[in-house]
Specification:
Oligomer: single chain
Distance between the termini: 22 Å
Shape: elongated
Structural class: mainly alpha
Strand content: under 5%
Radius of gyration: 20 Å
Number of strands: 2
Helix content: 55-70%
Number of helices: 7
Largest sheet: 2 strands, parallel
Order of helices and strands: HHEHHEHHH
Strand order of the largest sheet: 1-2
Length: 170
């Protein structure tokens, strides 16, 4: 994978512009290191919505890096990875802050859920009570999740469309 990314790096590095103001404190890493850093973010936070400032480069620059790498490499696995990475940029939104936004089912509800699925009447009643209390307690974090996930979903659809256009042109 690294060798194929090195091939893409030569073309992409020649095209890189100055970093955006919001990312100016970051060192000018090679294209491969930027792509690898993004991959590590995806591995660490596969379903979370993160602040756009967590990206190794400004979002527009990340888009260009992924598109240029996709154009340059012939390996289908790497091309697919660039497409997935490109679409995943929607998970990075302005205003999220330092704490990633995730939808989590509390542990006590996860344990009860198996019994509910098995049809246990006592578990169903317990889930109703626990679930209502949990939703009331965590309403603010759930509202944040639903707010940012709606934005991320819309942007993700636009990103997929944009990448499909790229694929048709190349």
């Amino acid at each position: 994978m690294r060798q194929a990314l090195n091939e893409a790096k030569e073309t992409v590095d020649r095209k890189q512009s100055a970093p955006s103001v919001t990312h100016s404190s970051l060192p000018r890493d090679s294209t491969i290191e930027v792509i690898e850093a993004f991959g590590m973010l995806m591995e660490r936070y596969p379903t979370a919505i993160l602040d756009a400032a967590k990206l190794p480069r400004a979002k527009q620059e990340m888009k260009r890096i992924f598109m240029d790498a996709w154009r340059k490499v012939a390996d289908q696995k790497l091309r697919t990875a660039m497409e997935i990475y490109f679409a995943h940029l929607g998970q990075f939104q302005e205003g999220v802050g330092d704490t990633p936004v995730e939808f989590e089912i509390p542990g006590e509800l996860r344990a009860t859920a198996k019994q509910v699925l098995a049809g246990d009447p006592a578990a169903i009643e317990s889930m109703r009570k626990k679930g209502k209390n949990t939703l009331n307690t965590n309403a603010r974090s759930y509202n944040r999740y639903f707010h940012f996930s709606a934005i991320a979903e819309k942007e993700g659809a636009l990103l997929l469309s944009e990448f499909e256009n790229l694929k048709r042109r190349n």
